Amino acid sequence: MKSSKPFRGMKDVLPGEVERRNALLGILRSIYRSHGYLEIETPIVESLDILFGSGGGENEKLTYKLLKRGEKLDLDEATSVDDLVDGGLRFDLTVPLCRFYAENLHRLPKPFRSIQIGSSFRAERPQRGRYRQFTQADIDILGDATVLAEIELITASGHALHSIGINEFTVRINDRRAIDQILLKSGVDDHLLQTTMIALDKLDKVSPIQVVEEMQQRGLPIKIAEAVVDRLSQVSPHRVLDTLSDLGAEETTISSLQKIHQNCAHAIKGMKVVVDPLCVRGLGYYTSTVFEVSHALSPSSIAGGGRYDNMLSRFGLDIPACGISLGFDRILNTLEEMQLERPKGTKRIYIIFDQDIELENALAASREYRRAGYSVSLVSHRRGSRSPMKRLATEAEELKRQGSLDEFWFQTLSEDTEPRLLMH
Amino acid sequence: MKSSKPFRGMKDVLPGEVERRNALLGILRSIYRSHGYLEIETPIVESLDILFGSGGGENEKLTYKLLKRGEKLDLDEATSVDDLVDGGLRFDLTVPLCRFYAENLHRLPKPFRSIQIGSSFRAERPQRGRYRQFTQADIDILGDATVLAEIELITASGHALHSIGINEFTVRINDRRAIDQILLKSGVDDHLLQTTMIALDKLDKVSPIQVVEEMQQRGLPIKIAEAVVDRLSQVSPHRVLDTLSDLGAEETTISSLQKIHQNCAHAIKGMKVVVDPLCVRGLGYYTSTVFEVSHALSPSSIAGGGRYDNMLSRFGLDIPACGISLGFDRILNTLEEMQLERPKGTKRIYIIFDQDIELENALAASREYRRAGYSVSLVSHRRGSRSPMKRLATEAEELKRQGSLDEFWFQTLSEDTEPRLLMH
């Protein structure tokens, strides 16, 4: 006998949750479409060559790789596992989007505003509420080098979050160029910028002392590490832009952040927008603006993104790009935590009948009820035996609890009397 | 520079097709829900142990397998590729459904009517219009041993097909037990039943002589092979059940087919239901009823299914099961062939403005138009330079052609005059 557990780190979704997911994704789609975005789909699998454009690094360790098939697979000749694999499950939707754009650009508008909703896969250590297959809902703008892209992306995703019931949230924005400029002014060596950034990203999770230690381990002199952490962790929220400027960020960078902030700050009810020098994002591919969306009831950010102007160059294109990805599973958890009243689900009629003598009547009745907008469940039941209503009521109450049923009734058929509709 | 082609045998989906797919899947979901089915989701990945419950066979060759990760992966110790892999991409939705049911049955109604919509993966030889990642929309009934399950499944999927615009189609039904009984009466050995069935399945694709040859290769004496092909390929459509009975099918089998036929034949407008002794289905797991749905404009069947009463026993459960799977990509191709008028798409306004001086006005105008139900696309354009309208019109016409846009207008902003709405 086999285990019925899902594959390690992955998850089965019960009916109530599937309905909730589909309803919310429907709202996201319609809001994003109203902002001029068009939805695309790309395969779950990409070649490893495309997934690891610039070396792989952390992502490569977390990626599910596919064994070659047929004659291409030769264990005896393989000198390393790289010889045995050719594809991998995508770890985000951004790399596939860039490949898609390069492949189809002559059939797409310029700039191209894309929606992509689908599963990504990362073999991270399993944790409560985090799964190795997870749903992302991304929007991106390819081909707009101006801050209009950032403004549109923050506004549209804020509108979308608000529409699905996330009504108080904070968008933290920053610009990697500002941090680079400040780090350089603080005496950080050019080749240590990226690694210092990765350490800085942890300032909201661990203590400043630990961050300084990590910077030392990454090669930064302790004096400089201390100065950097000191300066950036003590910026007053009331005069962030001025302080960044004082610390060495250049005028164009400050003006870019200011324009984004100014046009987004009052755009969506319940959306707070702040410039946060400690928002740097883990990923290597961002080139300037980065943003992250947080909610009081979510332990980690519910959305994040930024500008990645160099990624299309993998495909020989010089096209600027910017995007934001909603972590749909985390958003669902957050809505769960908010304990909102759930949207009205399904009204169901259970038709109880004896299959040997009433099949055609039951099928006819089910057609009528469906036309009237009910979900109909046929229950075959031998005349004279014990009524199934009690068992069905227990089941229906469980479905109500799971959120996939709202009201239910029983309908019995009988040879002698008119059909009876029994309200529960 | 990297190639931007999708992974071998897989497919990018452009915006017009994504919208069509989503609209049709929405209709399928709502029809199936009205028939009392509940939607579930299972991971894309299953352990190989679960995928190949009974030996694997043909499916195993077509399955994408996942390399183990971390310490579990050890090339030096591996004696065969089996030591290097632990999971695989699902090749259908039926095996995952059975695992899901075994894992969650205490939280599900009995019988359980499930909807599952998602991607399956098979590394078949790439062909025009057939892809290695494809969408299936399955409904199944677990826990009903009577023909009510078959009747409900055929009626619900017929209703669903009709509702998305497939208005003339044929459901061919058969019962593997009938064929088994006839083959046994014709002198076929018990252990050759399965292999003879696989050869018989090809009678609608190749000549009777070729089928006889294949049966011989599979170990059947030529006399018996000829008799079997002769008998089954010449059943008159007007008296199929009588003929099957004459040839040796047992009364309970005939009565089961009759009851299904009788209750489905007039259930859905445009749905023809016929008993076809040559409909046997390729897969090994079917135990009695099998069905296949064909359409004049589709070269291969657009749906198929049957009863698989033994599959849950892999998980120690004695539960009868029956299901039907819509080949969603083939259905989409068929609708394309039918050249129906497409559903009304999006109305879009292009707001053309100078970002340096009109950004706030443009954002405000875009909010107004969105509230009025339009999709809004912001077009930044420097005052005094050449108008982008001609380029935008070309793009919009391409989107109309792809089916993701229906009507469009241009809106210009100006300091001096009222906003002008230019109809195209």
Quick structural gist:
Chain A is of the alpha/beta class and 424 residues long. Chain A has helices at 15-34, 48-51, 58-62, 94-104, 148-163, 176-185, 193-200, 208-217, 222-233, 240-247, 251-264, 328-338, 355-371, 389-402, and strands spanning 38-39, 45-47, 65-67, 85-89, 112-121, 133-142, 169-175, 271-275, 289-294, 303-307, 321-327, 347-353, 375-380, 407-412, 420-423. Chain A starts with 14 loop residues before the first helix and ends with a strand.
Question: Got a strand count of chain A?
Answer: 15
Which fold does the CATH topology of the largest domain in chain A refer to?
BirA Bifunctional Protein, domain 2
How many structural domains of chain A? 2
Fraction of residues in helix of chain A = 25-40%
**CATH secondary-structure class of the largest domain in chain A:** Alpha Beta
Compressed to H and E, one letter per element, the order of chain A equals: HEEHHEEHEEHEHHHHHHEEEEHEHEHEE
Multimeric status of the protein: homodimer
Q: In percent terms, what proportion of residues of chain A is strand?
A: 15-25%
Q: Which secondary-structure class do the elements of chain A indicate?
A: alpha/beta
Q: So how many helices of chain A? A: 14
Q: What is the straight-line distance between the termini of chain A?
A: 40 Å
Enumerate the strands of the largest sheet of chain A in spatial order, edge to edge or round the barrel. Answer: 1-5-6-11-10-9-7-8
Identify the biggest protein-protein contact and residues per side: A-B, 99 and 99 residues
Integer average pLDDT of chain A: 90
CATH structural architecture of the largest domain in chain A: 2-Layer Sandwich
Shape of chain A: globular
The radius of gyration of chain A is: 27 Å
Low-confidence stretches of chain A: none
Kindly report the name of the CATH homologous superfamily of the largest domain in chain A: Bira Bifunctional Protein, Domain 2
Major sheet of chain A, described briefly?
8 strands, mixed
